[in-house]
Amino acid sequence: MPLLPRRGVIPVALAGALLGRAAMTGPLEDWHAFERRFVLPEGRIVDNGNRNVSHSEGQGYGLLAALRAGDQPTFDRILTWTMNNLKRPSDNLFAWRWQPDTQPAVTDLNNASDGDIYIAWALLEGSRVWANPVYRRIGQSIGRDLLRRCVVQVGPRWVLLPGAFGFQSRSRVVVNLSYYAFAAMRVIAQHLPDPAGSAWSGTGWP
Q1: What is the DSSP letter of 102?
Q2: Could you give all domains of the chain from N- to C-terminal order, each with its CATH number?
Q3: What is the model's pTM?
Q4: Is the peptide bond between 162 and the residue preceding it cis, with omega within 30 degrees of 0?
Q5: H-type alpha helices, 70-100
Q6: Distance separating alpha carbons of residues 58 and 138, to the nearest angstrom
Q7: Residue 18's pLDDT is what?
Q8: Crossing angle, helix 28-38 and helix 56-69, to 10 degrees?
Q9: Regarding beta strands 97-98 and 157-160, do their DSSP bridges make them parallel or antiparallel, or are they unpaired?
């Protein structure tokens, strides 16, 4: 199965510094510096290395970073912008890119499964940290639609597609291993007690 190159440019400070376990105990000054640089007042995470676009992946990173910093007001601003601007009308997944210089700002409604995974992960962890059942409900709905739209069986294995459309045909299935966020998948699986959740284990994810 060919590997798909990653799309878009995610700020290095976001991807490298804020997702690791060490960042969870890092100084709040790092979070505030990141917030000033990349988080707009309305909650949009700006990819300032790529025409100031926003991605579902970046919104998920921002939610995770705000969670680790214990900043629920910013978490809610990021979530509200994401729901209002990226949520697809047909399911609970998110369009992968928002462009400030186009009209409409979302020109491709396809999702990116890694962005959806990060958003769901942040919501489910946030529901535990802040005892918020709304976060849990939204996170579960994202997980269920990821299973429904992006997890498919190929021979004896279940695999995660990079998005709902364009990655599967009669002759090939495209898989991008960098989309497999194992820590996030374990958390999502714990919150999907319905029969659909069994497909997570079918992929071989821990």
Answers
A1: S
A2: 12-196 (1.50.10.10)
A3: 0.84
A4: no
A5: 72-85
A6: 18
A7: 45
A8: 150
A9: unpaired
CB distance 43 to 35 below 8 Å: no
Residue where the block lists tokens 């990116």: 112
Q: How far apart are CA 74 and CA 82, in angstroms?
A: 12
Structure tokens at 80: 């509200």
Percent above pLDDT 70 for the chain: 80
Say how many C-beta atoms besides its own lie within 10 A of residue 107's C-beta. Answer: 11
Q: What is the separation, in whole angstroms, between the first and last Cα of the chain?
A: 22
What is the distance of C-alpha 24 from the center of its chain? 18
State the maximum Cα–Cα separation within the chain, in Å, rounded to a whole number: 51
Q: Which residue do the tokens 């601003």 mark?
A: 77
Active-site amino acid positions: 57, 114
Average pLDDT over residues 42-68: 96
Q: State phi, psi for 156 to the nearest 5 degrees.
A: -85, -5
Helical residues (DSSP H) of the chain, grouped into ranges: 12-17, 28-38, 56-69, 72-85, 113-129, 133-150, 182-190, 198-202
